Amino acid sequence: MLEYPVWLVCGFLVPLSLFPGWVRPISWALAPTWGMNAIRESALGGSPLPDIVLCLLLGLAYTAAGVLVVERVLRAARARAALSLA
Amino acid sequence: MTSLRVFFVGGLISYRALFHFLSPWIFVPSLVIAPIFQILLFAYMGRSAQLESDEFYVVGNALQFASIPCLFAMTQAIAGERFQQTLGFILVSPAKRLPLFLGRAVPVVLNGAFVAAFSFAVGGLLLGIDVPSSAIAPLALVIVVCAFSCTGLGLVTAGLSLRIRESAVLCNVIFGLLLVFTGANVPLDDLPGWMQTISEGLPLTHGIEAARGLVDGESLSDVGGLLGQEALVGAVYVVVGYTVLRLMERESRVRASLEVA
Q1: Average pLDDT estimate for B18-44
Q2: Chain B environment of A9 (Cβ under 8 Å)
């Protein structure tokens, strides 16, 4: 379900300039946007380093958020004995 | 009377059973949000590359996305029962197979039609597509016929799911093929000859063309031939799907593989 929105607003296939201004902050908050920028910079002979760093930082932030969510859900599932329930 | 009950009540209960393992909180958004973003993605790609109009992508993708419920729900209605080991109880019953299997297709057709209609309405509103009011009723008919033909293909994958393990992967592959071959995003005339030949035998191809004609102002009689072809393709898939189901049922009895995952 989240594939198409990410493909749409991360600049993979469509230039971000086509979208209204309010879409930009959403793009900036997604790591693939910076990864895509880095690839473009590399291909065009520019410096991809700043984009790679931002991509890594966002990736780390998402990983940390993911770990927190998993821990919280696991704890809740144990407390409710709902781990094996569909 | 028993067959009618198996057809309607059995079909409805089977569809309801899908929600035993599928949360509505995931199922419903995946059918109403994903198609909108599919429409937007391809429409913006079209704008960016200056290819087809927004209308082209709204119609194509709204109808093509009906294949998600039609393929997956139809397949899961059979494969899900196999997975939960309830299919054996059904197949040892004396219930006639035709109402048993086809009854499970009715809620799927309605689900597919709803997804296509909702996607078309919301996608059209977001991108500003003008639809003549006279085209709305014929469009509804085209959507139902498309959902029917695609569910026919779903019956085939449902039959295959009695033998193969990864039916969801198979449905995903077919979804991708329909995205390319039905003319949802690429005009059929731009496809190579061999691809056009395959397109002729796939569900949705003629329905999408008919829907585009209606949105462009053609009447139902103008697109009647395309609609008939779509219905015929669907009927052929229903017959093939039912045959595959019966064959696989017999094979699974012989090999005792019905409940082997």
Answers
A1: 85
A2: none
Q: What DSSP state is assigned to residue B9?
A: I
Nearest to B44 among A3, A8, A86 (CB): A8
DSSP 8-state assignment for residue B164: -
| Cα–Cα distance, A57 to B244 (Å, whole number) | 52
Secondary structure of residue B38 in the 3-state scheme: helix
What is the predicted ipTM?
0.80
**Could you tell me if A39 and A70 are in contact, meaning their C-beta atoms sit under 8 angstroms apart?**
no
Q: pLDDT tens, A23-48?
A: 999 999 999 999 999 999 999 999 99
> Which residue in chain B is spatially nearest to A7 when comparing CA positions?
B41
Q: What is the pLDDT of residues B84-111, one digit of tens each?
A: 778 778 878 888 888 888 888 899 999 9
By CB atoms closer than 10 A (0-12, 13-18, 19+), residue B172 is middle
Token pair 């592959």 is found at: B173
Spell out which residues of chain B touch residue A1, defining contact as CB-CB under 8 Å: 26, 29-30, 33-34
